[in-house]
Specification:
The protein is α+β, with helices and mostly antiparallel strands. It has 20 helices and 19 strands.
């Protein structure tokens, strides 16, 4: 019965390009305004976000079809983890640029019984990887860390979802993957997917196996076309039947190994057979009475987020005014110091001891705060990592958030790094591979594709997991209940985006629509530049920041694709998808009045 119901729902969605009627009814009014006012000319006023509300569960992702798949699992009695697994595999079909089984990611969960956990299914360097594998004869970085077979780390996505289901799943594994199988058998192409394929057509032509999948007949599918991915459907069916081993052993593993041999890559059947997802203790710290639960290393998110927020905790920001020159100055100085530590120390904890406990402490935040001057920017060249001598990621990521009726909350961020990964589809298997090897410090001290300059701690080693900025995060209110589930893609901007969403809610009393729409800033220590979204700062603020010594630049385009759920005091769930890229929050069951 469950299989038939989910199949029917997905089929209806794809045929009519619509959404479940329930989702259309669940629009939340905007609550009282916060103290923040967005600049004139800003592209996304709070009204540009149409939040969804419900009481029986919520899923918010970058793609409506995937959100509907997860919501249907909740309607059928599945829990938040069940819905997350179904959503994950659906995204692998409808959002191939980022949500893909050829990559990896992180999961943070806070269950209704009060327990919390984090799951690391980040990719790993193949056993044949070497420290200097991406340097040319002159010692310079080559394109091979970004494009082509050698750029791929051992994928972790299927192992992660299998492990999450083993621990918390309540519905049969097969029922959770069936919607994705049906989608791979054939979908009606919607605008978001068609636009992405069209914009990246040249990249998708780099390898014959890739163009065969994404450019059928030599052209990207258009809106309204029916697009089938039979090789991907066959791969997913193997995972349905055999679980973890359906990907990491047998036919799929053979196809990956053959693709590596064909293209000069180094992932082997042994690499795949040895891969395991790892449970780790979440990073947990307090911020103004709230408990923040985030991802530990090899995510740099949790520890870096702690340094940013706990440094800011020592200031009464509300007396300064939101995005005033004084507020932005202090925020930039906190972020500058946090990224200096991030880039120097953080790495795979199985290879490098991590100073996480020190980084999330009040004492360390106070030390960092004492080095901040209120009247002058500190050049990044003068900001060394604060913990003593240091021991010897992609914009095309996707995040989604899920909360169920019982109050279980899941935040997942997953990636194949660059847009469409390394551009290689595994022949006969139908999925793209990642280019996560570029997230290592392929040449310590040299910037990667996101401009991050990282140290020896993140150098390449066989079997090591590369550092990531992905920051799936759950915020508990002072009473100890889930208040916010959030995360975003954006490469090196992920951590600063999540920090701003949390601060906008906690410090500035923004409703979820406003916090999602608000202009965003970014600094990452090196390069020493404060970037802001187009029309995201007042001209007078920019001028004043420059007099304080900040290098300030308006960036092209926008930052992030935040997918968040807020839980109100009466248990009502508010879901919001970022207007920067679209997406949808889909709620389940009874609609109730919003209570602030």
């Amino acid at each position: 019965m469950i299989k038939h119901h989910v199949t029917t729902l997905v089929g209806a969605l794809l045929l009519v390009g619509g959404c479940a009627p329930e989702a259309q009814l669940q629009r939340a009014p905007h609550p009282q305004e916060s103290e923040a006012q967005f600049p004139t000319g800003w592209a996304f006023p709070a009204q540009s976000v149409a939040p969804t509300r419900a009481t029986g569960g919520m899923v918010t992702t970058t793609d409506r079809v995937a959100s509907e798949v997860g919501a249907e699992i909740l309607r059928r009695g599945g829990n938040a983890v069940d819905a997350a697994i179904a959503t994950f595999f659906a995204l692998a079909v409808v959002n191939p640029e980022a949500g893909n089984i050829g990559g990896g990611g992180f999961l943070v969960a806070r269950m209704a019984d009060g327990s919390a956990a984090s799951l690391d299914f980040r990719e790993k360097a193949p056993l044949a990887a070497t420290r200097d594998m991406f340097l040319d004869a002159a010692g310079n970085l080559s394109e091979r860390s970004v494009v082509g077979h050698l750029a791929a780390g051992v994928p972790g996505s299927v192992a992660g979802m299998w492990e999450a289901h083993r621990r918390w799943g309540s519905m049969p594994w097969a029922d959770l993957l069936l919607p994705a199988v049906n989608l791979a058998d054939g979908i009606v192409v919607h605008e978001r997917l068609a636009r992405s394929l069209r914009a990246n057509e040249a990249y998708l032509r780099r390898f014959p196996s890739t163009s065969a999948v994404f450019l059928p007949g030599g052209q990207p599918p258009r809106v309204g076309d029916r697009w089938a991915q039979p090789d991907l459907a066959a791969t997913l069916r193997r995972v349905v039947r055999e679980g973890h081993d359906g990907f990491y052993r047998g036919r799929t593993a053979e196809l990956v190994a053959a693709e590596m041999r064909r293209g000069g890559g180094i992932i082997t059947a042994e690499d795949l057979a040895r891969y395991r997802a790892v449970w780790r203790d979440p990073v947990s710290f307090t911020y103004r009475g709230h408990r923040i639960i985030s991802m530990p290393s090899p995510s740099s998110g949790g520890a870096t987020l702690a340094v940013i927020l706990k440094t800011l905790e020592g200031y009464d920001l509300r007396t300064l005014g939101w995005h005033s020159p004084e507020h932005v100055h202090l925020w930039t100085e906190a972020v500058r110091r946090a990224y200096a530590d991030r880039n120097a120390y953080l790495a795979d904890p199985d290879f490098v001891p991590q100073p996480t406990g020190r980084m999330i402490s009040d004492a360390y935040a106070a030390e960092r705060r004492r080095t901040i001057r209120p009247d002058r920017a500190t050049p990044s060249s003068e900001v060394a990592p604060g913990l003593g001598p240091a021991p010897g990621e992609g914009t095309q990521t996707t995040h989604f958030s899920v909360v169920d009726r019982a109050g279980n909350a899941v935040a997942i961020t997953t990636t194949i790094n660059s847009l469409y990964g390394n551009a290689v589809v595994v022949g006969g298997a139908g999925f793209l591979l990642n280019n996560e090897m570029d997230d290592f410090a392929a040449k310590p001290g040299t910037a990667n594709q996101f401009g991050l300059v990282q140290g020896e701690a993140n150098a390449i080693q066989p079997g090591k997991r590369m550092l990531s900025a992905m920051t799936p995060t759950i915020v508990l209110g002072p009473e100890g209940r889930v208040r916010l589930v959030t995360g975003t893609p954006g490469g090196s901007t992920i951590i600063t985006t999540v920090a701003q969403v949390i601060s906008d809610v906690v410090d500035w009393n923004m409703d979820l629509a406003s916090a999602t729409a608000a202009p965003r800033l970014h600094h990452q220590h090196l390069p020493d530049v404060l970037r802001f979204e187009r029309n995201g700062l007042q001209a007078g603020t920019v001028a004043r920041l420059r007099t304080l010594g900040h290098q300030v630049e308006e960036r092209d385009g926008f930052q992030g694709d935040v997918q968040s759920i807020m839980v109100l005091r009466d248990g009502t769930l508010i879901g919001a998808a970022d207007p920067r890229r679209g997406g949808a929050a889909v709620g389940v069951a009874e609609v109730r009045r919003v209570v602030q």
